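Continuing the batch. This is chain 6 of the set; chains 1 through 5 are on the previous pages. Same settings as before, nothing changed between runs. Recording input and output for traceability.
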Amino acid sequence: MGEPMVKSLYKALKLLFYFDARHPEWGVSELARETGLLKSSVYNILSTFEACDLLQKNPQTGKYRLGFKALELGNVYRNGNDSYELIKGYMDRISGAVGEEVHLARLSQMEVVYIATSSQKFHYSIAGYHTDAHSTAIGKVLLAHLPPGELETYFSDVFAKGVTAHTEHTITEEQAFRCELENVRKQDYALDNIEHEYGVRCVAVPLYNSKGIVEQALSVSGPSPRMTDEKIKRCLELLQTCAADVRQRI
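Output for chain 6:
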């Protein structure tokens, strides 16, 4: 990522990015403590976003949360993504076939951000949720297909500062993780063997476009007792079939 052209705007937008699935609401004082910015600066920025309807105040808590304009922009992004409906149809079919959750995601600021979820059992979505890339199958796939320069930036700006060991299976040593990504590139899929969350396994594949570029990835995740090696293999076959068709059509 290049240097921001308008640093004041960059600072303001970075505040907006703190609003996510894990932290849907922020008070001015809380966000000031989290970011190290002056309360007055945080208040002025949040008030400006409120005036633009990107944020709104929760009348019960007095804290800020995303406004209707943020929802509108999200829908514009999704409707403008020509591949979304095609991929979502596959996701629904795969979820129905294996009975597990199917996720579509991409990288943003070197984190995984989920775009859509399909589930036959739960009527919810983690769209918009951000999480670490190093501990998830879908994150490994996306990192493995970054251009070499961007991948080195990830290692120097993120990995070198220390990554979270979510479980004892999380890979946190740099050379071991480089080897992991090399294996992902060779086999063209990735596994999360209880690395991000206890009791959960996941398999993911890259989604190539017609130019051979990977900007998105698909995964299937589920409880480890159900996600046996045999089921992982079946899920992988379904994901690969989807990925091959998507590559022909986008």
